[in-house]
Every structure is written in C-alpha cells, then in structure tokens.
Specification:
- By secondary structure, the chain is mainly beta.
- The chain has 2 domains: 180 residues, Immunoglobulin-like (Sandwich); 100 residues, Immunoglobulins (Immunoglobulin-like, Sandwich), CATH 2.60.40.
- It is built from 2 helices and 18 strands.
- The strands form 4 sheets. It has a 6-stranded mixed beta sheet with strand order 1-6-5-9-10-3, with no helix packed on it. A 4-stranded antiparallel beta sheet has the order 2-4-8-7, with no helix packed on it.
- The longest helix has 8 residues.
- The chain is elongated, with a radius of gyration of 25 Å.
- The N and C termini lie far apart (57 Å).
Length: 285
C-alpha cells in the first residue's frame, strides 16, 4: 500500500478509485495516494503504556534486526505488484505482541511530501526458544502504478514493535533498502547456420521499466559484454564489450569458428539489476 505520511485512514482500494489513474500509466508524483500511518499511530490502543506505569527506555522492546526483501534491492516491473518480505526481530521481558514496518522516502514522516508503502495486514509474530524474543513477518506490496522513475534510490525502513504488557518502540530510520527498475535483455545471432570462419552479427536490446509510462524503454549508453561458450562447454567467456545505442540497441560482428551459444551479459547499475538472457545457438558448418 502506498502512503502519504501525514494523512489518515484510507485503504489502497479507496485511494485507487478516488484517483482513477489508468493502469498503464503511473500516477504523477503529486497525485500519489494517501493511506494510513504505521506503528504507534496505528496501534495506539494495543501499545499504550499500562495505567500507572511510567514509560522509560528500559521498558521499551528492543529491536535487533529488520530484513527487507532478504537484504536485496527491490526490483519492480511495469505492472505486477511486487510482494516484499519484511522480517523484524525484537525482544522484551513480557514478549512481543505485534510489529509493523514502512519503507519510505522523504526528509521525515512529518513531511507532507514523504511517501512510502506499508503492509495491508498485521504482522505475524513467532516466539523463539525463549519467549522474550520474537520474529515478526509480513509482506508489503510495492505497486509500480504509484512509482516515478526518480524513486530508484535508497529508501528508509521504519519499524515498530509492541510488547505484550503494552510498551512499544518505533524507529522511523532503522535501516535502508533500495528500489530498482526491472531490466530486460534479448539476443539474436545470425545467420544460422554459418560457414566456418564466416561473420555473424549479434544483436539485442537492453531495456528497463519506465514507471511513468508503464512500458519498457531502451537503456542508453550502457556497457554490455558479448559472451560465447562452445557447444561442448558449460562456461561462457567474454569476447568483447559493446555499448548500447541511444535507444538501448546492441549490434556487433564476430567470426564463427565452432558450434556454440552467444549471449549478452549486463552487469547492472545502482538503479537497474543485472540481466543475462539465454544463449542463442549458432551451428557452424
């Protein structure tokens, strides 16, 4: 669920229907939907300090770890909602009753321009061998409909936990994660078959998700390796490095000496993940 940090309750479905944004195009940055806050703002009843007890740091649960998407960047395409796993480990003498998390960007959650995603369902907490420590898990849906291309950056991870006797801890910048735009890469080697020693032309295109148009757009001036493996081998070797054109296309020529597979290998960037297509077989006569 996408959230605007300071606006109160609205479900993802309500936000979508209110804006009526076409599914093939992302919402403009200033039109992204509002949704509930997370943590203490959502769990006030369950996590309020017990009557007669002073709230102190020593009373609060201790959050030891939060892992988002298995520690890997969150890679999002143009249409499919990405389900991102979140795991929070915390401890308290009375045990852990609940947890919550948010992934967000902005200077602070009080900033009206801050945006983020929260879970649509409560976290499930499971106690370890000692009942004082629990690991709480849930998924957060990241919908490309509400993303803009500049969202490919570092995001804050905010976490909250509530103890069984009513104390809570919240850290809006507990950790970091990042979003990347899903990449695609294809390859074609021709002619097939080719005479031994003949020239083959290897083409392809590197593209990545454009969240603002809901399409894939060519990734310009990126270095991509041309690789080859013999039919009798399981290992690819790099033949040369080629840069994509302004539209993301790739084209080069090379000599064919033995049967084998040709492929492109893109190592990725901070905003775009690595991608390697299956090799294209060329029969050498």
């Amino acid at each position: 669920m996408r959230i605007r940090a300071t606006v109160a309750v609205a479900t993802g479905a309500l936000a979508l229907s209110a804006l009526a944004v076409p599914a093939t195009q992302a919402a403009p940055a200033d039109d992204r939907p509002a949704a509930p806050a997370y943590g203490s703002a959502t769990h006030q009843g369950a996590a309020a300090a017990p009557k007669g007890k002073a709230r102190a740091a020593a009373d609060a649960p201790v959050i030891s770890k939060a892992v988002v998407n298995g520690g890997k960047p969150i890679v999002v395409g143009t249409t499919a909602v990405k389900k991102v796993s979140v795991s929070i480990t915390a401890s308290h003498p009375s045990g852990i009753a609940a947890a919550d998390a948010i992934i967000w960007i902005g200077s602070s959650l009080d900033d009206p321009d801050a945006f983020g995603f929260v879970a649509d369902a409560p976290f499930t907490c499971k106690a370890a061998s000692t009942t004082t420590t629990s690991t709480c898990t849930q998924t957060i849906d990241v919908d490309p409909l509400w993303l803009v291309n500049s969202d490919t950056r570092t995001w804050n991870v905010g976490v909250w936990t509530g103890s069984k006797d009513g104390y809570d801890t919240q850290n809006d910048k507990f950790g970091k994660t990042s979003l990347q735009r899903l990449s695609r890469l294809d390859v074609n080697a021709a002619p097939e078959p080719v005479k031994k020693g003949g020239t083959i032309t290897v083409t392809g295109k590197l593209s990545r998700a454009n969240w603002e148009t809901g399409t894939y757009k060519g990734y310009a001036t990126q270095s991509v390796q041309l690789q080859f493996r013999k039919k009798t081998s399981s290992t690819y070797s790099t033949v040369k490095t080629v840069k994509t054109s302004t539209t993301g296309t790739l084209k080069t020529t090379t000599k064919a000496t033995v049967d084998g597979y040709w492929r492109w290998n893109f190592a990725g960037t901070s905003t775009t993940p690595a991608v390697i297509p299956a090799g294209d077989f060329v029969d050498v006569k």
